């Protein structure tokens, strides 16, 4: 038997494939740009549009420019994301441009085949019998077209009369409160309807999931609208809410829509599970709805493929009027990328990706059940949600251990604090396990939660079972930190309030122990000087605390914090010594305040010291004159008189204390150095709690595994406190002066063999000047 003849491939298509392959290699390699080109790119204004070159550029240069704009200076992220993008996903857009220039009849046949094949495959995959498909870029556009179709169905003369048909009987669109934000407003703006046509249906408050539409309340709202002369038009339900992934009671909602002649539209991530062999009954009910919107791009990891709205309607004329179908063959080419991608993956490949994402969710859910202090949004009353591919969890203090610290009724704003801790938890997990694809979501009842939705992220990121295991491991490391921080937060506040020099900063948006502000003890400053002093002291205090050998994180606070000049302390561990932490903040702040006073008052202190020294020298000269008599002051008589009758006088001097701003006698300095010992005892730093080798600051011994290391835990703190004192003490020993910086003014009152020349008594004062 002869083999059938093989048709030669179109040279244009073969060339297109080669060009696409070359282009992908250029975009992924990142090695075509020379070092000189890189330097030139760094020095050029690449973000400013330039003139269009007259001679044009070759394809390689243009692709190189695209690569630079995509990756910038970080090529690794771009390459990691590009490795999951197959040529089949990009080939569709290139083929669409090529096919669009075919002759009209051939174009019509080709586009009809592409559209019918893709629609048939999708309807069979997702169990939607006898359906039609509309392909669109914006995933909300399909719902807009469906609404226009329903309006044309209920208002027969709408195509000719327009909005005047709606003025007598207002249409009403019902939407669940758990739908994605802005969806209803977008519909009204696109259909030129007032917002009064939109009705938000609350979710359950007593029975069932808190994220499911309240069916009984919906029934009452529809009856009230009908009695007031309005037309119930369309109901938007969820098969996987955007936040928690819960599914509405679609069977009951379909019954209401049939009863009141309404259109039921369903959307949500759980629709992807319709392709699996085993599907929950709640999601299976979506196959009976009037329309549904699918997003196969993120589900299957297909970039730049359109979203699809499947619908059932018997009148093709109304579908054409609503824009769901088009007579233009080029419009049908939107399905071409999806047509190629589905053939590339095949039926088994599609099922494998969806099943893999569902298994990842179940794997994480099973592990979360074993972790203390973690709650999931899956309730016992919602049996179908146990198979949801979306996992939403949250750290909660309800089951947190209570060994130490204050938990019960620890302060007001508990919900806000838990929200900020969970937001920090989600950010840490996303940063440390990026392939997991977790993100932070805000739910109305639960608050801030962490969401794991592998159907939307796993195919693009390449998430595997080991990534989920890493996520659980990291979660187990962070939970104790959150629990300790929650327990010690009130203890930290109580310790701060006991300190007169500290103010507690209540900021519920800070994920940590809290914030403090050091308040100077000076009360004689005006408001501007005091504010400047507070800013300077707290800035220096923050720098000092950040230099300490500790695991605690110190910060200036959140970016948009209303409080200024504050110090915020981050997460706590089990072995944290809160009392020592607060005492250290106070002692370091006081040290900074005292040293600041010394330099700020230096000029005034020195000026007053000079004036006082002059007065005391003048008084000493007068006393000397009265003691020695007038004869001893005569130039010729004085020396002879001193030779016959010497005056016994000891050397007197004064020491000037810059810190206290006063003059003292130097007699103790030259006798027993009592002043040095006194000052040294006063300047000795406050005794610090005894520590074991390697124990870091603010840790209780034996409470943590890191309490012992090779270095002393207090060496750095003692050095920071004693550094200035050691330098001053060394200088004092060399010069035989007190440890503090003093200025000595010595006056000679009498000599045994000669008189002091006139004017020398003020020499020390001039030196001080």
From TrEMBL:
Skewed-composition ranges (Basic and acidic residues): 738-747
UniProt entry tagged with the keyword Hydrolase: no
Keyword Zinc in record: no
Annotated Acidic residues bias: 760-769
Coiled-coil ranges from the UniProt annotation: 603-630
GO biological process, one term: carboxylic acid metabolic process
Record keywords, A-Z: Coiled coil, Decarboxylase, Lyase, Pyridoxal phosphate
PDXDC1-like third domain: residues covered: 492-597
Domain (PDXDC1/PDXD2 second) ranges: 413-486
Annotated region described as Disordered, given as residue ranges: 727-769
GO molecular function annotation: carboxy-lyase activity; pyridoxal phosphate binding
Cofactor requirement: pyridoxal 5'-phosphate
InterPro entries in UniProt: GrpII_AminoAcid_Decarb, PDXDC1-like_2nd, PDXDC1-like_3rd, PyrdxlP-dep_de-COase, PyrdxlP-dep_Trfase, PyrdxlP-dep_Trfase_major
Signal peptide: none
Family of this protein: Belongs to the group II decarboxylase family.
UniProt-recorded name of the protein: Pyridoxal-dependent decarboxylase domain-containing protein 1
């Amino acid at each position: 038997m002869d083999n059938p003849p093989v048709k030669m491939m179109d040279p244009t298509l073969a060339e297109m494939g080669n060009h696409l392959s070359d282009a992908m290699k250029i975009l992924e390699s990142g090695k075509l740009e020379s070092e000189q080109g890189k330097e030139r790119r760094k020095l050029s204004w690449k973000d400013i549009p330039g003139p269009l070159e007259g001679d044009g550029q070759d394809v390689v240069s243009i692709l190189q420019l695209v690569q630079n704009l995509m990756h910038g200076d970080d090529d690794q992220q771009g390459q990691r994301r590009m490795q999951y993008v197959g040529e089949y996903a990009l080939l569709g857009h290139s083929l669409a441009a090529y096919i669009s220039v075919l002759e009209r009849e051939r174009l019509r046949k080709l586009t009809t085949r592409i559209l019918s094949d893709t629609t048939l495959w999708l309807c069979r995959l997702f169990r939607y019998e006898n359906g039609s498909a509309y392909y669109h870029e914006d995933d909300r556009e399909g719902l807009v077209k469906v609404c226009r179709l329903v309006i044309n169905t209920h208002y027969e003369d709408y195509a000719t009369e327009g909005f005047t048909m709606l003025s007598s009987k207002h249409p009403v669109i019902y939407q669940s409160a758990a739908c994605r934000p802005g969806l209803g407003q977008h519909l009204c703006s696109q259909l030129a309807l007032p917002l009064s046509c939109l009705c938000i249906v609350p979710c359950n408050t007593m029975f069932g999931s808190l994220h499911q539409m309240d069916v009984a309340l919906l029934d009452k709202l529809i009856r009230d609208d009908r009695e007031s002369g309005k037309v119930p038009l369309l109901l938007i339900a969820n098969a996987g809410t955007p936040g928690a992934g819960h599914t509405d009671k679609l069977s009951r909602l379909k019954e209401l829509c049939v009863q009141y002649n309404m259109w039921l539209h369903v959307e949500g991530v759980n629709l992807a599970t319709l392709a699996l062999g085993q599907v929950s009954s709640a999601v299976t009910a979506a196959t009976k709805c009037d329309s549904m919107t699918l997003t196969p791009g993120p589900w299957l990891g297909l970039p730049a493929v359109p979203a699809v709205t499947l619908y059932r309607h018997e009148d093709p004329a109304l579908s054409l009027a609503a824009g769901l179908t088009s007579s233009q063959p080029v419009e049908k080419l939107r399905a071409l990328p999806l047509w190629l991608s589905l053939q590339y993956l095949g039926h088994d490949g599609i099922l494998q990706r969806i099943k893999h994402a569902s298994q990842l969710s179940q794997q994480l859910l099973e592990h979360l059940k074993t972790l203390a202090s973690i709650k999931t949004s899956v309730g016992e009353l919602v049996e179908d949600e146990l198979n949801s591919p979306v996992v939403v969890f949250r750290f909660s203090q309800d089951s947190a251990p209570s060994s130490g610290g204050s938990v019960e009724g620890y302060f007001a704003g508990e919900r806000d604090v838990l929200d900020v801790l969970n937001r920090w938890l989600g950010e840490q997990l996303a940063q440390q396990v990026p392939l997991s694809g977790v993100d932070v979501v805000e739910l109305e009842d639960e608050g801030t939660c962490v969401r794991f939705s592998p159907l939307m992220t796993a195919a693009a990121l390449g998430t595997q079972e080991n990534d989920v295991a890493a996520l659980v491991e990291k979660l187990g490391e962070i939970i104790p930190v959150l629990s300790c921080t929650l327990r010690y937060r009130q203890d930290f506040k109580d310790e701060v309030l006991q300190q007169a020099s500290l103010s507690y900063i209540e900021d519920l948006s800070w994920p940590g122990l809290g914030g403090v502000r050091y308040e100077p003890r000076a009360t004689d400053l005006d408001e501007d000087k005091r504010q400047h002093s507070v800013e300077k002291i707290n800035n220096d205090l923050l720098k000092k605390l950040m230099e300490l050998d500790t695991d605690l994180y110190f910060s200036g606070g959140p970016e948009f914090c209303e409080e200024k000049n504050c110090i915020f302390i981050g997460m706590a561990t089990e072995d944290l010594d809160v009392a020592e932490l607060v005492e250290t903040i106070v002692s370091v702040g006081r040290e900074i305040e005292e040293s600041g006073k010394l330099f700020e008052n230096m000029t005034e202190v020195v000026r007053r010291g000079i004036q006082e020294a002059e007065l005391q020298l003048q008084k000493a000269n007068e006393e000397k004159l009265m003691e020695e008599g007038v004869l001893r002051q005569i130039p010729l008589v004085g020396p002879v008189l001193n030779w016959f009758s010497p005056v016994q006088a000891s050397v007197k001097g004064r020491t000037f204390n810059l810190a206290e701003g006063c003059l003292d006698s130097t007699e103790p300095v030259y006798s027993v150095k009592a002043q040095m010992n006194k000052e040294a005892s006063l300047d000795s730093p406050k005794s610090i709690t005894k520590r074991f080798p390697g124990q870091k600051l603010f840790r209780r011994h034996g409470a943590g595994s890191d309490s012992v290391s090779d270095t002393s835990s207090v060496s750095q703190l003692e050095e920071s406190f004693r550094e200035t004192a050691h330098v001053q003490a060394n200088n004092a020993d060399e010069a035989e002066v007190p440890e503090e910086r003093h200025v000595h003014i010595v006056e000679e009152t009498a000599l045994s063999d000669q008189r002091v020349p006139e004017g020398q008594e003020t020499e020390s004062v001039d030196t001080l000047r």
